[in-house]
Automatic annotation (TrEMBL):
InterPro entries per UniProt: Cyclic_di-GMP/3'3'-cGAMP_PDE (IPR052020), HD/PDEase_dom (IPR003607), HD_GYP_dom (IPR037522), Sig_transdc_resp-reg_receiver (IPR001789)
Keyword Coiled coil in annotation: no
PANTHER family per record: CYCLIC DI-GMP PHOSPHODIESTERASE TM_0186-RELATED, CYCLIC DI-GMP PHOSPHODIESTERASE VC_1348-RELATED
Keyword Phosphoprotein: yes
Name of protein: Response regulator
Pfam family, one: Response_reg
Keyword annotations: Phosphoprotein
Source organism: Geomonas subterranea
Top-rank taxon, per record: Bacteria
Domain Response regulatory: 6-121
Domain HD-GYP: 155-353
4-aspartylphosphate: modified positions: D56
Biological classification of the source: Bacteria, Pseudomonadati, Thermodesulfobacteriota, Desulfuromonadia, Geobacterales
Amino acid sequence: MFEDVKVILADDDPLNLDLLEKMLQQFECTLIRAGDGQQVLDAITAAPQVDLVVMDLKMPVLDGYEVLRRIKQDVHWHDIPVVVVTADGAEVATVLELGANDFIAKPFNLIELRHRVMNQIRNKRLADFAKDTNAVLEVEVAKRTAALQQALAKALQTEYEISLRLGRAAEFRDQETGSHLKCISQLSKRLGQLAGIPADQCDILYFASLLHDVGKIGIPDSILLKPGKLTPEEFAAMKEHTVIGGKIMSGARDYPVIEAGRIIALQHHEKWDGKGYPYGLKGEEIHIFARVVSIVDVFDALLTERVYKRAFSPEETAGIMMDESGSSFDPHLLELFFKHVEEFLDLQKNIHADAHPFASITEMIR
């Protein structure tokens, strides 16, 4: 009926043990005899699996109460069912309170004994099966969770790589150095960290900031590459790079980096006082990612020589930007930025000193 069933029979009276053994032989199980409480514990320790203990309460060395207490308090043994054999009905409540699974009254009733023993063995085997099944399921869930995490990591890495390539495409259009994008990326993440943006969102900002000027792909060369000052009409056309960038990355809400890049591309020229473009957003209507990028973008642009301007000194840059606090820039973020300006200057200087375009996601992660 069951394979490899092991039952411990415990009583200090050999005649009672003989009687129990004879009654249970029909189950074709391994019966282990114990004459005292310590022998019960020794038998449980020695056997690889015990399915049931049928035990008298009055035994030498350790009585049945103490054996029951130890079995039910042991983390490895507490699932072993214990059936107590007793001639005193007053003992039943006590042993059940201690954790006994069932009891058999003396003198034995053969049919009752068989049913009670069979029920306990069946329950034990079902519990073991459920435990084994749960263990297998936990292993499978762990495997599938690991596989899912790997797939998600791969998908996110792919998203990052796409962001990098799109950012470089815009960079090649307006002939800025690869270090400009790298500078925007690293400085944006650092300012985000200082501003208390959660770590996972700072990682998204790190890569999404690469996409701030991706819309320049759609600006004609005659305007994008013009060395002199733009006419009002040309400047109006140049401002369209924000909208173009937003359109390029629209419909990607399931991809956090691309969606964040869309927001940054659209909003990084908005101003705190509402006089920016393309929509005239004001204050905290502007996403914090865009507010961060606008600061580090202008900071790097002012410090860097371009075809249409000289490089400004750190002191000049600070003066120009602080004059725009509360108008162009979020005053809190700008104050935080210049509170740590030496760190940002060191980052900017080191990035431009190593001015070669990054080639892949792996180089950016270093």
